Amino acid sequence: MPEIAYLGPPGTFTEQATRLLTADFDAELVPCETVPVALAAVRSGEVLAAGVPVENSVEGSVPATLDALTEDDPLIAVKEVVIPVQFDVFAQPGMTLGEVGTVASHPHALAQVRGWLAEALPKADVRAVSSTAAAAAAVADGEYDAAISAPVAGEHYSSLQRLATGIADVRDAVTRFLLVRRPGTLPEPTGADRTSICAVIGDEVGTLSDMLAELSLRGINLSRIESRPVKDHFGHYRFYLDFDGHVADARIGEAMAALQRRCDSVRFLGSYPKADRKPASVRPGSSEQAFRNAAEWLAAVRAGRLA
Ligand SMILES: O=C(O)C(=O)Cc1ccccc1
């Protein structure tokens, strides 16, 4: 049975997402302490793939994932899922909110309950740990007084009591997760796909706008752009781009080839079906047929077949 790594321990949001990402095959889920550890297990071949959090509707992208995707051998995303995230508070039995002196969670979770913490636990010492379930496990071990975790953590750490539920500052928050594996055959285009790339561009006038123009000229919808520093080169950045379409689509292929010419480097991070299954809107001049017609026309011109 293929092994699939995820940000553990059991009871994380990433475990729930990874179960959905692997719902169509038999998989054994392997908890890892961090996202880089999970991705290293994919790179070394220890596991087939990993489920990782990539972006949250409130707190933005997960920097550890973006960095770990690009700072070593290439990996590609083959599937995405978006799940709602709600948070509960867990503590040892008998403890009241007023007695909580230390509260732990994943940094992304802490950022999404800032308002609640300020109101309900204004004096508590807030500790960032590797995941929401790691926080619950640490509370069960007596390291902290309270954990902010996924509601499902209550099933895994059953010695704990739930002190509060639904504490997120923004209701309806969602997080996007990717299933990532070593490069190989790509998922088939579905007409409702997303492509992710990471591009490094020079510190010169117009390079970013030229890069974006390659997409807009071909009617490609950019759904996310994010920059992260190239760590050993102050002032240089990697740009992470998500756009609608599959690398097998003519307009996407042409845009990627243009980016490869213009940018210092481009890393392909995958083409995979969008979680919302919304088909890409394609302008008439950018359709597959339009590209085929144009290629045939050009071939004819070059062969001297036109009057
Ligand atoms: O710690 C977890 O449970 C995770 O899966 C990471 C995370 C944290 C907060 C929101 C979404 C994902």
Structural description of this entry:
The chain has 307 residues and is an alpha/beta fold. The chain folds into three domains: 1-85 and 173-184, 3-Layer(aba) Sandwich (D-Maltodextrin-Binding Protein, domain 2), CATH 3.40.190.10; 88-165, D-Maltodextrin-Binding Protein, domain 2 (3-Layer(aba) Sandwich), CATH 3.40.190.10; 185-306, Alpha-Beta Plaits, CATH 3.30.70. The chain has ten helices and 15 strands. Strands 1, 2, 3, 4, 5 and 11 form a six-stranded mixed sheet that branches. Strands 8-7-9-6-10 form a five-stranded mixed sheet. It is elongated. 40% of the residues are buried. The mean pLDDT is 95. It binds 3-phenylpyruvic acid. Residues 7, 12-14, 53, 56, 85, 106, 108-109, 131-133, 150, 175 line the site of 3-phenylpyruvic acid (PPY).
Key terms for this structure?
prephenate dehydratase activity; ACT-like_dom_sf; Alpha-Beta Plaits; alpha/beta; D-Maltodextrin-Binding Protein, domain 2; five-stranded mixed sheet; Preph_deHydtase; 10 helices; 15 strands; 307 residues; aromatic amino acid biosynthesis; single chain; binds 3-phenylpyruvic acid; six-stranded mixed sheet; 3 domains
